[in-house]
Design a protein that fits this description.
By secondary structure, this protein is an alpha+beta fold. It has helices at 2-29, 61-71, 75-80, 83-86, 120-123, 148-151, 171-177, 183-190, 217-220, 226-229, 266-269, 277-281, 396-399, 402-413, 445-449, 466-469, 472-476, and strands spanning 232-233, 236-237, 291-296, 311-312, 316-321, 327-331, 350-351, 365-379, 384-385, 421-431. The longest helix is centred in the first third of the chain and has 28 residues, at 2-29.
């Protein structure tokens, strides 16, 4: 009897060990929760003091670059492989086309300043290079890479026409200051796209130079730099915009740093298959600085009172908005692209970069967008959008002659011009992914599901509010 009791006790202990040991091992293997926002961000390497290394004097930008390349021998080649240099993608096959095409600022049009062809001297002020003044720019000349625009730490570096340094710049002083790219370096171009502060994006503007945390929690509360998220290897900078890119191979995702299981509330987590993080965490665009929402080129040329936020003779009429509510659409990370020569229906608005995705696409999520609407010149004979010349000799900003601008622009772009022009409405989508609000300011349930909520559920492909009509699986038969 005693032996039986002993065997029973031993068996019980062994059984408990079998059950408990794996649990203990599993729990001990689980990483401790880490609330440090810097934990997933690479440590910035301290930069080398260049005060004694870049003595100068330097007469031109390329002279500075040649000095840089004496030590950074591969840097010029690396930059020359990037879209910051080429302004053009690798060939990509867009839906509905027979052959691959390249896209980018080099050869695409938008509905802001429209395009760079024929307008090189003005547009390439923001090129990461020197001397792009016409179609014959030498993209193989590494000495024309502009190192200073990304690495200047004086805050005094200024580019002029064709991307050349402004005559006021002390090149030796700037070269001696170089270091890790700052918000000023990135923002000098990206905050001013389209001809001025806050014009294009709706989530990139001068308020991000030194933001408070209610403007952007990453930069304001935690002092992030742009390059902390847009991490870089061999000068390839992570990130993309569907204004000039059609795929997401260089995407910066929230989950690069944040866990996908970041929410304790299962009701919130249940949204993550259908709702982008930005939809709740970027509740408004243009939080501080108003952004351009509408541009009507057809009204240009009039001698009426000017206001940079309402009307300029050289550009036409504008509508700006501050703290605007985004528009929402399905987006799977890829987009279509209008290519010069594509036929349009001038009686309808043409979308230049339609985001791909809908309620039936399991890869798509609901994203917040700024949609910029414009009225721009098109060829009324051939029914395609035109690339007018605006800058320099014969340009519209000099002559105020749309027919001449259309002829010269078409010649620069290699297009036929029928001699007839009109005005067509267009739209461009801009994702809102900066200006991330503190979590306390994120959207709440009633913002989308309350009476008069911000979502147009039927336009998104639902029968109605998913709380009442069911989610995507009930709407379209997708598996959860």
């Amino acid at each position: 009897m005693k032996d039986f009791k002993y065997v029973w006790v031993v068996g019980l202990v062994v059984t408990l060990l079998i059950i408990i040991a794996p649990i203990v091992a599993f729990v001990s293997a689980e990483p401790e929760p880490n609330d440090d926002p810097w934990s997933a961000v690479p440590v910035r390497e301290p930069h080398v003091d260049h005060a004694d290394l870049m003595q100068g004097p330097y007469e031109t930008g390329p002279e500075v670059t040649k000095a840089c390349l004496e030590c950074h021998e591969t840097a010029g080649h690396e930059v020359a492989q990037t879209v910051h240099w080429t302004w053009e993608s690798e060939p990509v096959l867009l839906e509905g086309r027979d052959e691959p095409v390249t896209i980018g600022k080099k050869n695409s049009i938008n509905n802001f300043c429209i395009g760079i062809q024929g307008n090189w001297t003005g547009c390439t002020r923001c090129h990461a290079g020197y001397g792009w003044e016409d179609a014959n720019f030498d993209f193989g000349a590494e000495e024309n890479v502009d190192c200073l625009v990304c690495h200047d730490q004086t805050g005094l570096y200024l580019k002029s026409n064709s991307g050349l340094p402004d005559s006021s710049v002390d090149l030796a002083m700037v070269a001696q200051s170089v270091g890790t790219p700052s918000r000023t370096n990135c923002g000098s171009c990206h905050f001013n796209g389209g001809g001025g502060n806050a014009v294009k994006h709706g989530d990139l503007d001068s308020s991000l130079f030194f933001p408070s945390e209610d403007v952007d929690v990453h930069m304001g509360r935690y002092d992030f730099l742009c390059v902390d998220c847009h991490q870089t290897e061999d000068h390839q900078i992570k990130g993309y915009a569907i204004s000039v890119s059609v795929d997401d191979d260089k995407e910066v995702a929230c989950t690069d740093c944040h866990s996908e299981a970041v929410h304790d509330d299962e009701r919130i987590s249940a949204h993550l298959d259908s709702v982008a993080c930005q939809t709740c965490h970027v509740p408004q665009g243009a939080v501080r600085d108003a952004t351009k929402m509408n541009w009507d080129w057809s009204t240009a040329g009039q001698d009426i009172p000017e206001d940079p936020h309402e009307y300029l003779k050289i550009k036409g009429s504008f509508v700006y908005e501050q703290n605007f509510m985004p528009e929402y659409a399905w987006f799977n990370g890829r987009a279509d692209r209008y290519i010069l020569g594509d036929i349009i229906d001038p009686t309808e608005s043409t979308v230049l970069n339609m985001p791909y995705g809908d309620v039936t696409d399991p890869e798509a999520k609901i994203w917040p967008f700024k949609i910029h609407r414009a009225k721009q010149i098109y060829d009324a004979g051939y029914n395609y959008l035109l690339q007018p010349k605006t800058v320099g000799e014969g340009g519209y900003w000099t002559e105020f002659d749309w027919d001449l601008a259309a002829r010269l622009g078409s010649e620069a772009a290699g297009m036929e011009y029928s001699g007839e022009y009109g005005w067509a409405e267009t739209e461009m989508y801009w994702t809102l992914t900066h200006l991330v609000a503190p979590k306390e300011e994120a959207l709440q349930c009633y913002d989308c599901h309350g009476e008069g909520g911000r979502m147009d559920w039927e336009a998104l492909g639902y029968y109605g509010d998913p709380i009442r009509w069911g989610g995507r699986s009930q709407t379209i038969g997708l598996a959860e």
